[in-house]
């Protein structure tokens, strides 16, 4: 059996390679577009280190569940509970009631190591990454894994002996195949749920239980290490939010991590492992757990609660460096005063440590329950501020027809209801709406403006209506948008096709060819340009402006570049000889002077950074001077 249990300084350095990209990705540095793979690197490292300990103890017939969970609680709970306490306290002063209410729910599930299940069930396509505890999903996956893994390894060792590695390999392969299948149909399940992530931890476990060791040849060790490092760095630099992830796209980073671990041992190093063992890199690895715990709450609470902070952190590179610095300071303090003392302390017996850990979990469940019971303590703000902020909890499912005609990440293309979304018969003109959520949010306005017409709808989250989709888009996007642009036209026979999306500059070449293709098929087309978009949810910006009595501040949060994009799209529409509608110019007549932010009933026009509410959609169409009657019959 391979020698295990000795200290590997290069693995501490590898932890730094995992955590730094995660932090830089989350603060918004553009170079690390795939920084999220740091979590996958952590999974492999964790699987290797923990499995090494468990396997050694099981093979020597001295494994104890009490000892194991005593170590896990000492390692995980103290810093985690300090972070939970700090977040609950800070959020009381920085978040609005609806945000604090959601935080309370997430505290409960985080304390129970079920954060991943909670976020899978509750987070929708529109909600975004605005919960200070969202990052704890990965910790929950690990804890769920280690709840059952010791039992599987113990039973496997008794049944198969040293060949238990093959059992782990089979489980890992099934998990990986399942992850790749589900990332195409239910990407959120593949991302959050443990059965689709367990293969990453098991890669480390397979390394720990097998006889694979570093080659005797230093040349081969260096080659393996360079290959592993290239796979890890390549994943960090080449993947991005649009990548179909996890699944097979996570394999290079995990395989690279495995190669880096395998290419070095206690007495067999390589130049990469020597580099990773340097004191500054190793120190970042030592504080990596605390850094991971603290960085996301620091980022979210600073940005979400910025209006109530005594200082301002911008969205530029200086602001990003400030967030990294704040996270590092918190991590160092946490590691030095919380992690180290609790991990090495022998003050309490092992069974008592477990009881204290369970009691602390219960206490945080109670704290979260109180936040939920008291509805996020709305008494902290005036009625008008509360009312405006409450629109961040707006549910667009009904007006968007989610799960039926609007297919988001919780659904597959099979959920699309062809008979309801593309009715064969109906009164008046036949108008087909094609696009993503920025097409779906036009539906209430179209219906209110043209109540006597038949409206068809093919809309998919994150899926612009283009005839050339990126290879990384989910299966639901490629299938349904291809259908909408081809068979859907012949099936619905529209008089007018409304094309809309959350347009990006990179879409314009494909958009031009799509419009030409639609025109070639004889369709009358109306292209909708970008809507006003903000760097934070509009209801929150309005609530902050109301709280501070500075209404003009809202305009400063408008995303730059929208007016230029609008002009480019207008030129493309003219070149393709299709109609063009500019929601941006309709709601923001003069650049730099603010936009229409309230709908006709006095509520916010949009419920997040860019999506219109139902009444906001109707208000937009009230203001439009077009008629849609041109070229229809």
Describe the structure.
This protein is 59% helix and 4% strand. It is built from 28 helices and six strands. The chain has helices at residues 9-27, 38-59, 65-94, 97-111, 115-122, 137-160, 164-185, 187-192, 198-209, 218-238, 251-262, 271-276, 279-286, 288-304, 317-344, 350-373, 383-389, 397-400, 418-421, 437-440, 443-449, 475-485, 487-492, 508-520, 538-548, 562-576, 583-587, 614-623; strands spanning 406-407, 430-435, 454-460, 496-500, 525-528, 579-581. It has a six-stranded parallel beta sheet with strand order 1-3-2-4-5-6, sandwiched between helices. The longest helix is centred in the first third of the chain and has 30 residues, at 65-94. It starts with 8 loop residues before the first helix and ends in a 10-residue tail after the last helix.
Query: What is the share of helical residues?
Result: 55-70%
- Order of strands in the sheet with most strands: 1-3-2-4-5-6
Count of helical stretches: 28
Secondary structure: number of strands: 6
Report the major sheet. 6 strands, parallel
Structural class: mainly alpha
Spatial separation of the terminal alpha carbons = 79 Å
Shape: globular
Portion in strands:
under 5%
Estimated radius of gyration = 27 Å
Unreliable residue runs? 1-5, 627-633
The chain-level mean pLDDT equals 91
| Quaternary assembly | single chain
